[in-house]
Amino acid sequence: MAVELDVFVGNTTLIDKDVYQLWLDGYSVNDAVAIRVQSGILEQAGTTPDVLESDTMDHYRAFQMLERLLHSPPKLINQLLFQIPPPMQAMLIEKYYTFEEPFVREVLGKKLSKGTKKDLDDVSTKTAITLKSCRRQFDNFKRVFKVVEEMKGPLVENIQQNFLLSDRLAGDYAAVVFFANSRFETGKKKLQYLTFEDFACCAEQLIQNWTLGAVDSMADDMDVDLDREFLQDLKDLKVLITDKDLLDQHKSLVCTALRGKVTIFTEMESSFKNLSRGLINIATKLIHTKDVRDLFVDLVEKFIEPCKSDRWNINDVCLFLTQYTNTARALDAFKHQCLWERYMGTVKSCILKMYHD
Q1: For the chain, what percent of residues have pLDDT higher than 70?
Q2: Beta strands of 148-242 (E only): which ranges?
Q3: In Å, how far are 149, 187, 215 from 222, measured between CA atoms?
Q4: In Å, what is the CA distance from 268 to each residue of 3, 194, 317, 321?
Q5: For FRET with 101, which of 126, 138, 214, 249 sits at 20 to 30 Å CA-CA?
């Protein structure tokens, strides 16, 4: 008697997203099993603790074998050993390179070196993130930095092409790379209120407007290094505060434009010259590496804190910076409009992002 038998053989690698997250979070197999038990999986699956432990160990072994491929995501896409559907591949890569806000705030702007890596014990304790997870996140930052730091072309695109990350995550890594390269100070007490997202938005503005790539789309390190010629030229803006007539004209134009439009007009009028000196002195010092590093500290000290002490709200700040920037066009003796707008356009965007009511 003939019997027809259909046989299907598959070797698709099974990925449990929850176990993958436990592995990424740095939990040991025993800890992961305990967490899975607490989730009620034994009752849901009708299985035993021994089977659950064996299942968890199998997943961990697979993740450890995949890890070397995740270090270079195009290799994961092109390899034939693990049969993983494309959507699952994308998930594995995205989650592997995802980082946590408390961790990135501790290392943002620091040199991605062995010295910083030695401090990860303290970072782990402070953030309550496992040391293993801290090391993974730090190594990812360092790996991305090394691959893209000297590439031509847009930074975000280079990160996407080499690490296959989403637009959002690639943009976040661009901010990490940019801050690590210029070593911006982010850790001081007066900056602690700022989130990584605040700094990432500022990084995007700086990359788009103040780097070599803003003027030359094929420059080496185009989105990583600041345009030194631009920083050197910023000293020409000093005329706005050293020329008394220009300073008085500028103040008059801003006050005329804002009279009746802001509730803090009296405070704004009396503090105009100090605020203007603060913003322009920041510009004229940016040719020095140390002053570049202190950019965000200076913006807080010279502008944000004085405005907060006078109870400006975000709308007051926006109106002031808009008029402060635009009215300079009406100053006949001022001949540096393009330079001014390249500087103030970015400073305005950064301050508005950093100004938390």
Answers
A1: 95
A2: none
A3: 9, 26, 9
A4: 92, 25, 10, 11
A5: 214
